[in-house]
Structure formats: structure tokens, C-alpha cells
């Protein structure tokens, strides 16, 4: 694993916008000189490293499913800061094995030592358009003789085909936050809808705020008062359950993708549970709930934080970094701090995709800061053959 420089393609901005990355300007802080999509640099891997990472992601996925079963079996929802009323519908969702689509494991990896799980984006992971279509065509344009860890697009279509028989007949509604100013959420869910339609599933776009509750039929409906039978959403479960209509979720027959049991994975309390269930695992970092315990170097993370908000890094030399934000009332996880590897003054985080049961791809974000946040840039990768 190493970092290389290469000349950006002439007209690269128009190229990536036509491929779906229309939000690369609006989702990135305007004061930054470095673009969000940066193809002036990229990372190079050998096939052995990628195969090893695939095994890590596959094992982490299975460990996470065991963690879900552990919470449902023992009732340890308090570790995740979830209200009591959610226990029954989450358990019912898990017992039914409600189908799921995808997720993204964020890993620390330097090309040599074992990869370490930083967190799991299991409910509303983004970086999908750039991690799937955009970087693949970059590779094809500049390095057609090489490979890339990237079968995300094909895997999403295949997964929709696999779960389609379990869905109630009728269109799937694809929902995003209507207040999404950057367009990132909209373009991401639109891409997911495209993969479903390529699998033969009819899709309907809808803003989450336009989903209504019909008190007579006890069903969720769209603006045309059609029953919403299946929702594929890019809207966090922790937001849904705190809104007035969230209480209706358990009684409605609507299928949700991602399903309700994914709430147990889209929460940094998962890191605590994994360390308890698999202590000393080479791909985990020690993590504790609301206390650093015996950790002398740690990063403090809110259970439900996003985009690197409300994090704090402390080492024996004192505080090293801290970010602001509005999260933390739900509690914190204290995870052992292992600094990201440095490549030319940049710190990359590997976002590894799993679709269904399969590890299928890699996207990399990097920044000059110790904490990856919304100032980070996406850079492509290739596998040298």
C-alpha cells in the first residue's frame, strides 16, 4: 500500500458530475482549496493486501451479526442508549430476519499490520456513488491494465434481486431528507434506486418529510395516498424513532431497508459490545462505555455522532484534537486511540463496503487532521497487477 500522484483527467469535474457526483462542490466546505474528489493522488495496493482485507471485513460482518443476536437475547439495549419501547420492534425485526442491503466498515490500515475497526456505518452510509461508479471509471480511463476492489454496483443489483421475493409486491419508495442542501443524500438514494430498477424493481422517489400516516388504514402513505409497502431510506433510524410518526413504525406493515435491527449496528456502542464479545481480537480496538477505563490514549466518540462531530482525542501528553457539534447527550464510547497511518502528510481511512454477506469494495477518505470529518477528500485506488 502506497500513495502515488497522477495527473487529473482534462475536464474531470464534468466527467464525475455526469457519473452522478454532482454534489462534489456543494457537500465540501467552500473555503477549502483541495476538492472533495481528488484524483491528483491515489492509493496503490497489491492483490494480497486486498484479499486479506476482504477476509477481515467478512469476519467483522459476522461478528456484528453475533452482536445483534447478543443484544436481542440479553436485552442489553442500554449499552446503545436506546429507549425501552424500541426493544420489542427491534427484536421482532431481527427474529424475522428483515432483509438488509449494505453497510460500510471504516478501518485503520497501513498496509502492514492488521486492519483495525474504527466504526461501522450500517444504516445510512454515504460515499457510495464515488466509491462505486466514479472511481471505477477513473481507473478504467487511466489504469485500464490494473484492477480495483470494486464490485459494488454489480453486488447491489444482485442483492436487490436476492431480496426482491421477500418484499411485498408494489413499488419501493426511496426516501431522503428533504432538507438535504448539498444534494449528497438525494444523489446517493437515487443511485440506490437505480440499482434496484436495474434489478427489475419499480422505484418511487420521495422526501422523508412527505411520508404521511393514514389514521384510518393505519398505514404509511405517499403524497398520492398510495400505501408505502417498502421504504429504502437514507434517513437515520435514531431520527425516525424520535419523531411523532416513529411510534407508528411497529404497527405498520411497511418493510424498511435498512431494517430496524440495524439500529443495533449503526451505533458506536457496538464497539463496546464487540470488544466484550471478542476481547483481544486483532481487528478490534479496546472500547468502553462512558469511561476510558484503563486507556491512556483514547478517542471519545458520541454513540450517535456523524461526520466526526463531538470527538476528542486524549493521549498521555494531554488533549490532541477536538471537534464541535450537537451530539453526545446520548452518551459516549471511549476507544483506544491508534493514530491513522501518515502518507505524505495525509491520514487515510479505508471505507470497506459489504453488500449482503459479501465484502465488495473500498473507498478512501483522507485529511491532514487526526479526525476524519466533512473536510476530508475522497481519493481513488487501484490494485497493481
Explained architecture:
The structure is a single chain. The protein is α+β, with helices and mostly antiparallel strands and 385 residues long. It is built from eight helices and 19 strands. The strands form five sheets. Strands 4-3-16-17-18 form a five-stranded antiparallel β-sheet. The longest helix has 28 residues.
List the helices and strands and how they pair.
Layout: E1 2-5, H1 12-18, E2 41-45, H2 47-74, H3 87-95, E3 102-108, E4 116-121, H4 128-142, H5 152-163, E5 172-176, H6 184-198, E6 203-207, E7 212-214, E8 219-221, E9 230-233, H7 237-240, E10 255-257, H8 269-277, E11 287-289, E12 298-302, E13 312-315, E14 318-322, E15 332-336, E16 347-355, E17 358-367, E18 377-379, E19 381-383
Parallel strand pairs: 2-19, 5-6, 5-9, 9-10
Antiparallel strand pairs: 1-2, 3-4, 3-16, 7-8, 11-15, 12-13, 12-15, 13-14, 16-17, 17-18
Helix pairs in contact: 5-6
The low-confidence runs, each spanning 5 or more residues with pLDDT under 50, are none
* Major sheet characteristics: 5 strands, antiparallel
Strand content: 15-25%
Percent helix among the residues? 25-40%
**Chain oligomer state:** single chain
Alpha carbon gap, first and last residue: 13 Å
Mean pLDDT: 95
Amino acid at each position: 500500500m502506497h500513495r502515488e500522484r497522477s495527473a487529473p483527467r482534462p475536464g474531470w469535474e464534468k466527467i464525475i458530475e455526469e457519473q452522478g457526483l454532482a454534489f462534489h462542490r456543494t457537500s465540501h466546505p467552500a473555503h477549502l482549496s483541495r476538492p472533495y474528489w481528488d484524483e491528483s493522488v491515489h492509493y496503490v495496493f497489491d492483490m494480497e493486501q486486498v484479499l486479506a482485507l476482504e477476509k477481515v471485513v467478512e469476519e467483522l460482518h459476522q461478528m456484528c451479526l453475533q452482536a445483534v443476536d447478543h443484544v436481542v437475547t440479553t436485552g442489553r439495549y442500554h449499552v446503545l442508549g436506546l429507549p425501552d419501547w424500541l426493544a420489542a420492534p427491534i427484536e421482532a425485526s431481527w427474529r424475522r430476519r428483515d432483509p438488509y442491503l449494505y453497510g460500510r466498515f471504516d478501518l485503520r490500515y497501513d498496509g502492514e499490520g492488521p486492519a483495525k475497526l474504527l466504526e461501522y456505518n450500517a444504516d445510512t452510509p454515504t460515499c457510495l456513488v464515488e466509491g462505486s461508479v466514479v472511481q471505477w471509471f477513473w481507473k478504467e480511463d487511466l489504469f485500464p491494465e490494473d484492477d480495483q476492489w470494486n464490485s459494488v454496483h454489480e453486488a447491489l443489483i444482485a442483492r436487490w434481486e436476492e431480496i426482491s421475493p421477500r418484499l411485498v409486491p408494489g413499488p419501493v419508495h426511496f426516501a431522503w431528507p428533504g432538507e438535504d442542501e448539498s444534494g449528497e443524500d438525494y444523489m446517493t438514494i437515487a443511485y440506490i434506486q437505480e440499482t434496484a430498477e436495474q434489478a427489475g424493481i419499480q422505484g418511487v422517489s420521495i422526501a422523508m418529510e412527505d411520508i404521511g400516516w393514514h389514521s384510518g388504514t393505519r398505514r404509511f402513505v405517499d403524497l398520492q395516498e398510495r400505501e408505502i409497502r417498502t421504504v429504502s431510506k437514507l434517513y437515520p433510524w435514531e431520527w425516525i424513532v424520535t419523531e411523532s410518526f416513529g411510534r407508528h413504525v411497529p404497527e405498520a406493515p411497511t418493510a424498511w431497508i435498512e431494517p430496524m435491527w440495524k439500529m443495533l449496528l449503526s451505533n458506536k456502542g457496538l464497539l463496546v459490545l464487540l470488544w466484550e464479545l471478542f476481547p483481544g481480537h486483532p481487528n478490534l480496538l479496546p472500547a468502553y462505555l462512558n469511561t476510558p477505563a484503563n486507556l491512556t490514549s483514547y478517542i471519545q466518540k458520541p454513540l450517535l455522532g456523524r461526520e466526526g462531530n463531538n470527538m476528542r482525542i486524549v493521549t498521555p501528553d494531554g488533549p490532541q484534537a477536538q471537534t464541535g457539534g450537537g451530539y453526545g447527550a446520548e452518551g459516549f464510547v471511549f476507544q483506544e486511540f491508534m493514530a491513522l497511518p501518515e502518507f505524505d502528510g495525509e491520514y487515510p481511512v479505508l471505507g470497506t463496503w459489504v453488500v449482503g454477506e459479501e465484502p465488495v469494495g473500498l473507498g478512501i477518505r483522507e485529511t491532514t487532521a487526526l479526525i476524519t470529518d466533512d473536510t476530508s477528500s475522497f481519493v481513488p485506488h487501484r490494485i497493481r497487477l
